[in-house]
Amino acid sequence: MSSLYLYTIAALIVGIIFPAYAIWNGKKARQLLIEQPSSKILVFRQTGLILICLTIIVIIPFILNGKRLDHIWLHFLNKPLWILGLFAISFLALYIFKSLRLTEKAAKKFQKANKDVSFLMPSTKLELKITIIISFIAGICEEIVYRGFLFWYLTQYVPILVAMLLANLPFALGHLTTTGKKNTFGAFILAFIFSGAWFLTKSLWLPILLHIIVDLYSMILAYKSNQLLNNNSQQPK
Residue 100 in 3-state DSSP? Predict the structure, then answer.
C-alpha cells in the first residue's frame, strides 16, 4: 500500500469512523456518567487517550511521506517562543479563571444554562485537575485533527468553505449523543469561530489557544458553581 493512501485512511478514521463511534457509544457513556458519577475520571482519561491516538493517526502519514507539518498549519512548532507563549497565555487564563469569585446568582445561572451536561462537569478537586489536563489535550489534539489535518485533506478535493463545513461537522457530531443537540450546535458554532481564527492567521496557534481557554473556562466555572451551591445548601439557615 502506498503511504499516500494513509492520508485517506486517516481522514476516514477521524471524519467518519470516530464520529460514528462517538454517536453510537455516546448514549451509553451518558447513562453511565449519570448513574455512576465516580466513573467521570475513567471517562475523562479515556477521552484524553483517544484524542492523543487520533492525533498520532493523522501525523503518521506526514512522517512516512517525509512531509513537514507546515501543511496543516503547525509551522509555529519551529518557533520555541511561540510554543512558550501558547502555554504562558493558557496558564495565565487558568490562573485568572481559578481566581474568579462567583456569586450564588451567577452560579445558579451557569448551572441552569448547562444543566444538560451537568453530569460531565467536575465536582471534586481530582476531577477538576483531570479536566484541566483534558482541556489542554483537547485544545491541541482536536485542532490538529479537525482544523488542521481534516480541513487540509478536504481542501484537496472541495472548495475551502465546503471543506471548512465538512471538517467541522464530525467535530460537532462527536458531541451529539453525549451532550445533546443544543450543545452539539454550540460545538459547531465554536468550531467555526476556531476556523475563523485560522482564516485570519493561517496558523493553528490561535485556534489551539482559544480552544484551551474555552474549555478551561467551562470546567473551572462548573467546578466553582458546584462548590458554591453545595456549600450554601449545607449551611444552617
Answer: coil
